[in-house]
Amino acid sequence: MSLRRREFIALVGFAAATPTVLAPWAAGAQQPARMRRIGALMNLSSDDPESLSRVTAFAQGLQQLGWSDGRNMRIDFRWSAGDTARTGKLAAELLALAPDVLIASGDGAAVALHEATRTVPIVFANVGDPTSPGLVESLARPGGNATGFMNFEYGISAKWLELLKQIAPGVSRVGVLRLPNSPGNMGQVGAIQAVAPTVGVELRQIDVRDTGAIERGIAAFARGGNGGLIMTAGPQGPALRDFIIAQAAWHRLPAVYPFRYYASTGGLVAYAPDQIDQFRLAAGYVDRILKGEKPADLPVQAPTRYELVLNLKTAKAMGLQVPDVVRLRADEVIE
Predict the structure, then answer these.
(1) Per the count of CB atoms within 10 A, which of 22, 124, 290, 295 is most buried?
(2) With 80 as the cut, is the pLDDT of residue 208 above it?
């Protein structure tokens, strides 16, 4: 069931205008007597097109399960826009609203909410490794007040390097853009390091702290020649993606990205899970928790479908001849 055009426009307008979104979707099932409240901490900005896609998917998932704004539920959104310093404050704001369940988008949001409460149920989406920061005891038996959906398993990071070598065979040096002190990033980098000798590349890590560090790191790396980039997944990456993509283009460095929305906004290629679908699935876990199930008993789920998205416009601008094997494998080609 999809939102009608008028309903979608209303959802977008509210999301961009205010941190509290009351999405207008229709009732579809018998309504419980008590109004339920959901708090959502999102790691992007409210006007980011990716954010609107996630909110819409979550709304559709709830609609299909009979949850209707103004009748039996209300959602309060907070948007961190990748600012880790604000995430804890926003988590506290949501908790003060006495929600029945919390939604977390990304590692930073999930950790902040988990630190703020060990009693209110938390459903996370797009989290790298929920065990390292202690969000869950195990994937099969979370054991606490949090559960949800992982971004990917670390082994996928090795495929980013293999894809880079396929699309740009001359690359012999790879700059790995990573977030310092991020447990999830450490696992991704480790997987890339493990496969690097087999494809004959030298790795260099470039810290993604802010735009200044990114610009200096990429510029210094590019001077060595025969280079390519891999962007790992982490809390600050989405907010900095436009700058990172621009730097890769400026230095004519072929780059592989961890999520589809990097390629759709100008990045060369992405190999990634379907992130939007995670928010539809998260709606199902929210429904089950509101109906009495406990997060401790709901297993953490890993993605089952990955997408290869190729931006041919960017490839042409860089003078790259994309091999047919990559073009034919692509789930989406951006012309």
Answers:
(1) 124
(2) yes
